[in-house]
Specification:
Order of helices and strands of chain B: EEEHEEHEHHHHEHEHEEHH
Strand content of chain B: 25-35%
Largest sheet of chain B: 6 strands, mixed
Structural class of chain B: alpha/beta
CATH topology of chain A: MetI-like fold
Number of strands of chain A: 2
CATH superfamily of chain A: MetI-like
Largest interface: A-B, 21 and 29 residues
Largest sheet of chain A: 2 strands, antiparallel
Number of domains of chain A: 1
Distance between the termini of chain A: 56 Å
Oligomer: heterodimer
Strand content of chain A: under 5%
Radius of gyration of chain B: 18 Å
């Protein structure tokens, strides 16, 4: 009886959550396709986004993402490697910088994105003088996705079989070689997971970008120009622009597809890169 | 096994007889190992003879693994380990003189209890260490890899699937691959930490036979809990025992001698299976 009840609960929860997701997705797809056209994808927005398209907004979004990933990826991997390979087992006896870095990252991972937005505005836009720009926005996003990315990669590296570490060192290989050729490829699933989480979070981010990359919906001329990200555009259309719902839906559809495409792309890129390392 | 390259060959050695040249390859003097405040090994002195197989026997926890990890300095991975004494190798004291550890570990290879092939292809498992040690010539690497795989009797079994994952091999094949991976670097000494204990009896017999074939060509130090195996393969044997929770070397000598007329009552008791 209890068994029956429990499995009913499990299946019901799954059904409830999945159907909610499907509902949202179906809504976006149905309403979005009604307003979507290839012209919409490439044209500049007009009349506050009610007319025209999202060409310039897509370009800004991709630039912001590119900057965020280019900064976060190497930096995050570096910190993850340091934590996992150079600071020993996590414990309260761990050396002081490692213990504090880990804890700090966990707290930062939970900080609301609006706080990152305010920090980015104060630090990148004002203090470093980057103003409202794609660069400020990208760097702010990098700060935002770093904690989760680092922790995911770190736990992936820590989960790698210790025998391989000892084996590599016993063969007179340097620690660098062991990390580069064996440990990182072995931690591939975690690195991909961290990347996917990061891309998803960064692409869908609004609050952190409003105060850093700004609102301007023109085609950006350089990285120091302000540029409106897709998520900001959706927010603006649905909250501030009457009659913008159709465009908002179409933009949301594009955003969903963009995230799927980027994740697939990132996954296959990282995968094939590592596969080459493993086999070559 | 005629194809073995002979850099460290001391001539063929008949089974059961001690080495023809009892010349120390490694001299260990007063070696003690501590982890923090806990002493695991105290005042061990013994010579490891060139081209011979030296078996380290004794109950678990008496410091045998710590002992062999000092010989390639892999013990330094443990931050709390403190090693004192002298280990003489090639005119240098491994513990005091500045040692290029990467070079040392190329000359002193190690095989672990659990086979640990890298999650790479069979070929790359051997190719990677060679590349890391600066063997740039691709063709030369190919020759060395084939030779090493032949030496461990794996070539015929895997030559048609060198590009498939090493993790798909059976346990015994994996362990032989690990031995090949050590041999491909042309070491002088091989340290083996219970190389057969994770294998089934058949695979274990194959690896044991391989170890026997290494005799005379490489200096081998093998930790084993299998007394019959020690007796079958080793020229020299060292018996470790724990007294007051500290590992000590009780007796060291020719293997046959140690097993047939042990000089210490603890040894006698251990090999007759009465204790430990």
């Amino acid at each position: 009886m209890a068994d029956r009840l429990f499995s009913t609960f499990v299946f019901a929860s799954a059904a409830l959550v999945v159907s909610l997701m499907l509902w949202v997705l179906a809504d976006v797809v149905i309403e979005g396709t009604a307003h979507f056209s290839w012209h919409f994808l490439f044209a500049e927005p007009a009349d506050a986004g009610r007319a025209g398209g999202i060409g310039s907004i897509l370009v800004s979004t991709l630039w912001i993402l590119l900057i965020a990933l280019l900064v976060a990826l190497p930096l995050g991997l570096g910190v993850a490697i340091w934590l996992a390979e150079f600071t020993g087992k996590p414990s309260r006896f761990a050396p002081f910088p490692a213990r504090n870095t880990g804890m700090t990252l966990d707290i930062l991972a939970g900080v609301p994105s609006i706080v990152y937005g305010l920090f980015g505005n104060a630090f990148f836009s004002i203090y470093l003088g980057l103003g409202f720009s794609i660069l400020s926005g990208g760097l702010t996003l990098a700060c935002m996705i770093l904690p989760v990315f680092i922790r995911t990669c770190e736990s992936g590296l820590r989960a790698v079989n210790d025998d391989w570490r000892r084996g590599a060192l016993a063969l007179g290989m340097t620690q660098t070689a062991a990390i580069w050729h064996i440990l990182l490829p072995a931690a591939r699933p975690a690195i991909i997971a961290g990347l996917v989480l990061g891309i998803g979070r960064a692409t869908a981010e609004t609050a952190a970008l409003i105060f850093t990359s700004g609102y301007v919906d023109r085609m950006p001329g350089s990285l120091l120009d302000s540029g409106r990200a897709l998520a900001v555009h959706i927010y603006d259309l649905s909250m501030n622009v009457t009659g913008g719902d159709g465009a908002a839906y179409a933009s949301a559809l594009v955003l969903v597809v963009l995230i799927i495409v980027l994740n697939t792309l990132a996954q296959s890129l990282v995968d094939s890169w590592f596969k080459r390392r493993l086999a070559a | 096994m005629k194809t073995l390259h002979p850099p460290y060959t001391l001539g063929h050695i008949e089974e059961g007889t001690p080495c023809c040249v009892p010349q120390p390859h490694l001299r260990v003097q007063d070696l003690s190992v501590r982890y923090g405040t806990k002493t695991v090994l105290s005042q061990v002195s013994l010579d490891i003879y060139k081209g011979c197989i030296t078996a380290l026997i004794g109950p678990s926890g008496c410091g045998k693994t710590s002992f062999i990890s000092t010989l390639n300095k892999l013990i330094e991975l443990n931050d709390h380990a403190e090693v004192s004494g002298r280990i003489e190798f090639d005119g240098q004291d491994l513990l005091r003189d500045p040692i290029d550890e990467l070079r040392l570990r190329r000359r002193v290879g190690m095989i672990f209890q659990k086979p640990n092939p890298f999650p790479l292809s069979i070929w790359r498992n051997l190719d990677l260490p060679l590349k890391e040690h600066g063997v740039r010539d691709r063709q030369l690497r190919g020759q060395k890899i084939e030779q090493a795989l032949r030496d461990v009797g794996l070539w015929d079994e895997v030559s048609d699937r060198l590009d498939s994952s090493a993790l798909a091999l059976s346990g015994g094949q994996q362990q032989r691959l690990c031995i090949a991976r050590a041999l491909v670097l042309e070491p002088e000494i091989l340290l083996m930490d219970e190389p057969c204990s994770a294998l089934d009896p058949l695979a274990s017999a194959v690896v044991e036979e391989l170890i026997l074939r290494l005799r005379g060509r490489y200096t081998v130090v093998i930790v084993t809990h299998n007394l019959a195996q020690a007796r079958r393969v080793a020229n020299y044997a060292a018996f470790f025992w724990m007294t007051e929770r500290v590992g000590k070397l009780i007796e060291f000598g020719r293997c046959q001698h140690l097993f047939e007329s042990p000089g210490h009552e603890l040894t006698a008791a251990y090999i007759s299976g009465a204790r430990g």
